[in-house]
Design goal:
Length: about 300
């Protein structure tokens, strides 16, 4: 089984598609936002044509009004792996949601169970102050977690503070305990890496492109639905900024710039996470290098690991 990882806008989806087509595989998406139906443009989901050509798993599995947990992801992933291997096909996993990748590789960390009294109190504090205020508090006790969690992601901020209050330890200290170095399955892990300037250029171009492709109308449609978006969905990069634009808090130009900035921050957090992963075969990708050329390099590594 081959896993392709990389930061946002790194081109990992195109590489995974070409790889799956070449080896007769199916793709497992490791992305916390591509799970939502009707959130297509802002999450850069594969096109309908690509999904018809190669089966993709863990896309469009829940409504935008629902939340999606790490445990749910792992159940979907294990089910998808079983289906793919039973069909005699190759597993190609791809994504950038680092926590999901780590769970897929090593399992879920053994953190303390939920304390609903603490959660209720923290939610009340958000209502009285702001999500950003709790994020600043988190940064005081767990800088690493704060760097990975978006300042508007109330659910994850609350969980991180909850763990700290219950144990006196940062949540990141538990997240280092994923099954030690023992992977749950035999994976060849490929990391795609580009020069930082090139990565930033790709991120900026994507931000502009998704707006040109109709992100504003996509968000309008989601907001017009009978039930409100879940906190998790409404915090997604691209959606949060366009929501602010539609509320009159940002011009469209300001929203696009905010998407660029937040996407670059996400990429930085992803790079931090990926440094903690073991056995990653890093490929330095040139801007003009095609996905097909990268696939040849991936297969060379996979073949060498199997010998």
């Amino acid at each position: 089984m081959i896993l392709i990882l990389g930061v946002t806008a790194s081109g990992k989806g195109a590489v995974a598609f070409e790889l799956a087509r070449k080896i007769g595989g199916e793709i497992i998406s490791i992305d916390s936002m591509k799970v939502y139906r009707r959130m297509d443009i802002g999450t850069a989901k594969p096109s309908r044509e690509r999904r018809q050509a190669i089966r993709h798993h863990i896309l469009d599995v829940i409504e935008p009004q629902e939340s999606f947990s790490l445990d749910q992801f792992l159940r979907h992933a294990d089910e998808a792996i079983g289906q793919i291997t039973a069909a005699g096909k190759q597993v190609v996993a791809v994504g950038g949601t680092a926590l999901y990748i780590k769970a897929l590789l090593y399992g879920i960390f053994d953190g303390p169970p939920a304390d609903f009294a603490i959660r209720k109190r923290l939610k009340a504090q958000i209502a009285a102050e702001s999500t950003q205020a709790l994020h600043r508090r988190l940064a005081e006790v767990d800088k690493e977690a704060a760097s990975r969690i978006h300042p508007n992601d109330a659910r994850r901020i609350i969980r991180a503070l909850e763990v700290y209050e219950l144990t006196g330890k940062p949540i990141t200290s538990f997240q280092t305990q994923f099954g030690a170095d023992t992977m749950r399955r035999d994976w060849t892990i490929i990391g795609l890496r580009r020069p930082k300037a090139g990565e930033n250029g790709r991120i900026n171009r994507r931000a502009k492109r998704i707006v040109e492709e109709g992100l504003v109308d996509e968000v309008k449609g989601l907001l017009a639905e009978d039930e409100p978006l879940s906190k998790q969905a409404s915090c997604a990069i691209g959606y949060a900024e366009i929501i602010q634009h539609l509320q009159g808090r940002l011009t469209l130009e300001q929203a696009v710039e905010r998407i660029k900035v937040n996407s670059r921050r996400l990429a930085k957090a992803q790079r931090t996470w990926f440094k903690t992963f073991h056995d990653v075969n890093w490929l330095d990708i040139e801007e003009e290098e095609s996905a097909a050329d990268v696939v040849d390099r991936v297969l060379a590594i996979a073949d060498a690991e199997q010998k």
